[in-house]
Write a structure and sequence with these properties.
The chain is of the alpha+beta class and 162 residues long. The protein contains six helices and five strands. Helix 1 packs antiparallel against helix 2, helix 2 crosses helix 3 and helix 3 packs across helix 4. It starts with 10 loop residues before the first helix and ends in a 9-residue tail after the last helix.
Length: 162
Amino acid sequence: MATTAKVPSVRADWTEHAETALRDAGHRSSGPRMAIVATLAGHGCLLTAREIADRLRAEGRDIGVATVYRSLELLEGLGLLHRVEREGVSRYEPAHPSGEHHHHLICDRCGRVSAFEDAGLERSVERMARRLAFRVEGHDIALRGTCASCLSDGPASVPREA
């Protein structure tokens, strides 16, 4: 059965893992960089660089968008982040070393992104890989449609901006 509630996570483990990976790769765990890591870990699911910068600003941290982009590029390059593209916008979330992951429901009307896990879906991916004699290294599944809130609002002819 699929669940759309908050996905259980190992956020503290990912933060520690990210700090270790940065250090092992010869990068400093600077204050701004670790604030970005903490923001990603705290949210856990798909944030844009602008959203990260806005959250940091709301916390009183003066970290510019350019610094956020550079940090995201570095973290992604080290395999610490997953990047998901939607309509030309990159969104990022932690890539857990344990392989723990989730998938996404994306509302085409309001732009809401919700995480979900589904053991049956994971088994289907494994069966497909065996049937096709293919070793799956990773996968991202995003289901696009209309969320329950938008469905209750009734039909709309023009999608709302995300």
